[in-house]
Write a structure and sequence with these properties.
This protein folds into 2 domains: 86 residues, Winged helix-like DNA-binding domain superfamily/Winged helix DNA-binding domain (Arc Repressor Mutant, subunit A); 110 residues, GAD-like domain (Gyrase A, domain 2), CATH 3.30.1360. It is built from 9 helices and 7 strands. The strands form 2 sheets. The chain has a 5-stranded antiparallel β-sheet, sandwiched between helices. Strands 1-2 form a two-stranded antiparallel sheet. α3 crosses α4. The radius of gyration is 17 Å and the shape is globular.
């Protein structure tokens, strides 16, 4: 099962009771936290900004999928979970917070690198819309083509037209030919991060 397909299946899994109060974005953030160090349900709920009931459901579904195991130290990745997270990081290897730049529509700005998916970008509108649905003010989609950073239909040379953003992106993400950079902005750090990730997910294969 592909990365995006598995994440979506964990969110949409049919279970008795009310529908899920968490999203694919919460699952990704949960896996990111667990990959860094064992974490308990209470801390997971607090960082994700969800109730303990939703955190409990996330943990159960990840455990049922054999992606995590639970011990007295908290949740940690199983070998299968580590393999899944490695595959995810091959596709979306970097996420960084940026200072204000030409793409910043709000206080917080997050940039995400998506490897080798420039051909999947059309106009960037799909990514922007996904970011807005996730709570961000918007998202800018940049592709690397013929050695240049390009903003589809807007700029054929980001280095010239948006020098502050260009410098930050090059220094922190180091994108290569065929890569995509998503820059999401929002009024809170959490929404900027979730917005950028939602936009990035539109580029992954189902």
């Amino acid at each position: 099962m592909k990365v995006k397909e598995l994440l979506n299946s964990l969110v949409k899994r049919k279970t008795p009771g009310p529908s899920s109060t968490f999203t694919t974005l919460h699952l990704i953030k949960a896996l990111e936290l667990i990959a860094e160090a064992p974490v308990g349900r209470g801390k997971l709920a607090k960082i994700l900004g969800i109730g303990e009931g939703a955190a409990r459901t996330i943990i159960k579904r990840l455990k049922d999928a054999n992606l995590i195991e639970i011990s007295k130290e908290g949740c940690s990745l199983t070998p299968l979970g580590k393999d899944f997270w490695r595959k995810f990081k091959e596709k979306i290897p970097k996420k960084v917070f940026l200072e204000k730049n030409e793409f910043s529509l709000a206080e917080y700005t997050v940039a995400i690198l998506v490897k080798g998916r420039s051909d999947a970008v059309k106009t960037g509108m799909e990514q922007r819309d996904a970011a807005i649905v996730a709570g961000a003010e918007g998202a800018t989609t940049i592709i690397i083509k013929n050695g240049k950073m390009i903003l589809p239909r807007i700029s054929g040379n980001v280095a010239k037209d948006y020098p502050i953003a260009y410098k930050q992106i090059v220094e922190r993400l180091k994108p290569k030919e065929g890569d995509v950079v998503i820059v999401g902005t929002a009024k809170t750090m959490e929404k900027a991060e979730y917005g950028a990730m939602a936009a990035a997910l539109t580029l992954l294969e189902n």
